[in-house]
């Protein structure tokens, strides 16, 4: 199964994803490719494959990406090798990708993809979390909030919607969804 966590930036999906990887040792994280700069503390091949624009374009041309999107001026994409290797080995995967990317994965993999939307309590809270995270400039935060309104409208297309007001409860809810699907 492909468990896809999506949400507007700042809603908490990275925090929840890390938690799921700790709780479910059999779950593998799909490391995406991106052209964005590495943030302090991020590791190559663990958080992302950090590629140049040329290298990313080459992957697109070689059909090496399951889906890709331009987000806030950078390219992000799911590597075909990551996903197909895991699926052929019978492993479950966790993807942390944007809303459009999630819908593309669903189109391609159908019932094998479980889409989980992480909903923030509101746009003000979202802005507050992005500011508190301290990894983005004011400009970038503005762009993330602008995109969030459209992303929130896509929630009904997801298999599950989890409100992340209380982190502990949200983590538990996502864990229950994964547990139930893995056991089926
Ligand atoms: P995303 O990956 O969706 O962009 P993050 O997981 O980086 O979001 O979370 C954004 C910020 O909000 C982080 O600093 C995180 O610690 C914080 N955060 C996540 N969930 C909650 C919550 N329920 N309540 C308060 N802060 C939260
Ligand atoms: P960030 O720059 O905060 O790491 O990520 C920005 C956005 O890109 C997030 O919504 C994240 O989920 C999304 N993202 C990360 N990897 C991929 C990917 O492979 N494909 C798509 N479509 N979005 C991705």
Characterize the structure shown.
The model has no long low-confidence stretch (mean pLDDT 94). Strands 2-7-1-8-9 form a five-stranded parallel sheet, sandwiched between helices. The chain contains seven helices and nine strands. It has a single domain, classed as Rossmann fold (3-Layer(aba) Sandwich), CATH 3.40.50.300. By secondary structure, it is of the alpha/beta class. Helices cover 46% and strands 23% of the residues. The N and C termini lie close together (11 Å). The structure holds adenosine-5'-diphosphate and guanosine-5'-monophosphate (5GP).
Approximately how much helix is present in the residues?
40-55%
Query: What is the succession of H and E elements?
Result: EHEEEHEEHEHEHHEH
At the fourth CATH level, what is the homologous superfamily? P-loop containing nucleotide triphosphate hydrolases
Radius of gyration: 16 Å
Approximate shape: globular
What is the CATH fold-level name? Rossmann fold
The count of helical stretches stands at 7
Overall number of domains: 1
